[in-house]
C-alpha cells in the first residue's frame, strides 16, 4: 500500500469547501509574528534568528543528467542552420578603438564611427596588410590574425560629414557663417583621429571546446565576434540594427499601426552553440518605427486630429524630440531638439549680413521672411518651427519643409489597439516563416564574407532536422469527479460542472457609463453559473453611475460609486461585477481595483459589455470569478488522486517569479516584482501572490528577504512561506520548485547566487534549521527558436518537447510547446534547469512542466508557459494599476538630487480579506 505523509487523508476527506473553512480558522491562529521552530530547538533559541547558510559558495548552472524518453517520437525542423568549422586554428584579435574629432571630442555616434572605419580601411589598406575588419560600431574591432603592430594612430578625412547636416537654415548667424563654424563641431568634423590598440586574443578553438561540453574561457566571445561580423554586413547595406536583428529600408516590410507608427519586419540572426554543433539561428523579427513621410502627416495621425490647427503642440514637442528629419529644400538631415516659441511668421532670429569680409550689421528677420528671400514660399506660416540646433544655439526649420527619415525606431509604449494590430499583422504561418528564413540565409551569401571564409566557416542552407517527442496531455477532473480529457490542448465545460464551484449570495452590479442592459447581464450570468454548478442569488442592486459623477476624476467617480453601493446593500458584498465603457485603458480600472482590493477587501470582476456576450463569454467570466472567490474550475487527475511524482509525497512549494518593467521610454517608472506561491499542498492549482516595487529596469528581485530595522522580515518569501504553512496542515515545505521568468543567460548566475540566497535567508530567518531542497528553472519566451513539422503545414502539436539537437551542449535545457497554435507560428518556451537538488528524472520534470500548463484557472486551453509564471505576470500588471506612475514621475523628477537616489513608492498592501485570494485571475 502506498505510504503518504501524515494528514494527506485528512485533506482528501475534507473536500475543497471544508479546506477553505479550515484555512480561515488557521488565519485566526497565526499572525505575521509567527516563526516556525522545531520543538527540540525552541528552548535553545532566543532573540533574533541567525542565518546559518554560507552564501559565499558560488553556484553554476548544472549539467544535463539525462534525456527524456517518454512520448511519441516526431521529426521536426528548426530555424537553426548548421555551421561547419574548417579553420579551428584561426585566432581573432581584438583591438580597442578610440575615434576623436578635430576638437578632441570622442565620437560616440555609431553611424559616424562605421564611416570612419570604412574610410580608414580604404585609405590605409597597405599599412594594415590588407586585413579585413569586423567593427561593432563602438569601441571594438576584430581581425583574423594580428595586425602588423599593436598600436596605430591614423588620421581620417570624411568629405561629406559636415555638408550632410548643415547649411541652408536660419541660425543666429547667416547660413554661410554657420557652416564655417560647424565644421569644427564634434559630429560634423571632417578630420578624425583614430587610435587602435591591441586588447586580446580570442581563439576560434574555444568554441570547438564549448561544443564538446567543456568550459571555455572565450566560447561566448567567439560567438560575439561572429555576430559582429553579421551585423557589420547588414550595416553596410544600410539596415537598421537592433541588437541581433536588422531591418532594411523597404516599404514592403512596413505595416501601418496608425498613430504615425509602423511595424517593420526584419530578421534576427545569432550564432549558437548546440549539442549538434555550431548553428546560425535565423528568424523573422519585428520592431516599431516612425512612419516615414511629411512631419505634418505624422503629427495629424499621431494625435488623431483632422486639422493641423488642432495639434496639441506641447505633446507634439515631446513626441518629436530626438527624431530625425530631412529638409526637402536642401535634402539634408537634422535631429529635432524642440519647437520654436512662435510660429514661422513671427519667430525672429538675428542674421548677420556681410559685405565681403567686413561685417556690417546684424538684422532680425522672421523665419518666413528668411525662406521667402531664398525663393521658398511657406503655405503654413502659422505653424511653429522645428528646432534642429543646440540648446543655446537654435536652428529653425518650417515643419512643412520636413519629412521623417525612414528606419527610426519608435520606443514609446504602444496603445492596446496598436499592439493588437502589430500581433495580427506580424503573424506568419509556419510554411511562410520557413520560406522567409531559408531565403534570407541564401540571399545574404554569408559564405562570401571575407572574415567568415578566412576562418573556414560554412553555413548550411537548409533547416536543421530535430528529433522531438509529443507528451500526452494530462487528464483533468471537473465537477462530480468527472474526468475530462483535453483534445489538442483544449477542453470545455459544455454539459459539465466546475470542480469546486462557489456560492454567491450578496453581490451587486455597478455600471460606469457602459451602454448595456444590466438586468439581462445579471440574468444570463446567473443562468450560465447555475449550469456550471455556481449558485448565484439575484444581485442585491444594480447601481448606475449618475451623469454628474461622470465629469469627476476617476478616483472621485469610484468614491461616489461606493457611496451608492453602501447605501443599497445591507452589508459588505462578497463580490462586485463592474461594467466599464471600454475593455482596455479605462481610467476607472486602476482606482476601482485599488478601492476594492486595498481598502475594502472585496473581490471584483470588470467586464466591458459588447454584442458578443454569449454563453461562452459568460463561461469565461465565471471561470475568473470562481477562482477569485476561492473555488476551483478543474484540477489535474493526478493532483486529485495525489499521485504527482515527487511533488505529492513530500511537502512542496511551487513559486512563479516575474518582474514587470515600465515602457522602454520611461526609465522613471518603478519595476514591479511579483512572486506567486502554491498553497493547500498537495494541490498545485492554488496560488497566492506577493507583489513589491523596486528600482526601475532592475530585473533581480530585491525584496525576497527584507529585514527591517527592528529585525523582522517584511519580504515576499516570508509571506508566502507562512501562507504555505497555514494552508498545508502546518507543514513546512521540504522542497521548493522555482520558476523564474524574464532573465537572460547572462543573469543565470544572479538568480542562483543572489535571488536563491535571499530565499534561503528568508526561510532560515523563520527558525528552521534544515533547508529544503531546491529546483530552479528559468522559463524564456523571448528567444528566436521555432519548430516546424517536416511533413505538415500545421504547427507542432501541443506537448511537443525537444531536449536534443538544438539544446545547449552541456547545460540542462529543453524546449516545450505545451499549447496549440491555431494561428501564426507557435513559439516554444525554453526551459533552463539551473539547479535540481530534488532530483527529478528528465521525464518527470518535463511532465510536471506540461501539467503546470494545464492548471491555469482562467482558460480552457493549455498555455504556453507554466501557470505560476503567468499568475506572477498578472499579479504584477494588476497591482501596477494601483499606482499613478505618471504623477510619481512628474513630482520626483524635479526633486531628485545627485547625493541621494529617488525613493521608490511602495505598493499599497492588499486587504486581509483578499490577500490570499487569486485576485489576479
From TrEMBL:
* Highest taxon of the lineage: Eukaryota
Coiled-coil residue windows: none
Keyword Acetylation found:
no
Residues in domain PAZ?
Answer: 294-406
**UniProt xrefs under Pfam families:** ArgoL1, ArgoL2, ArgoMid, ArgoN, PAZ, Piwi
The protein's UniProt keywords, in alphabetical order, are: RNA-mediated gene silencing
Q: Which InterPro entries match?
A: ArgoL1, ArgoL2, Argonaute_Mid_dom, Argonaute_N, PAZ_dom, PAZ_dom_sf, Piwi, Piwi_ago-like
Q: Is Magnesium one of the keywords?
A: no
Fetch the PROSITE patterns from UniProt.
Answer: PAZ, PIWI
Q: Name one GO biological process term.
A: regulatory ncRNA-mediated gene silencing
Gene Ontology MF terms: RNA binding
Annotated Piwi domain residues = 575-884
Family label: Belongs to the argonaute family. Ago subfamily.
| Task of the protein | Probably involved in the RNA silencing pathway. May bind to short RNAs such as microRNAs (miRNAs) or short interfering RNAs (siRNAs), and represses the translation of mRNAs which are complementary to them.
Q: What is this protein called?
A: Argonaute6
This chain's source organism reads Zea mays (Maize)
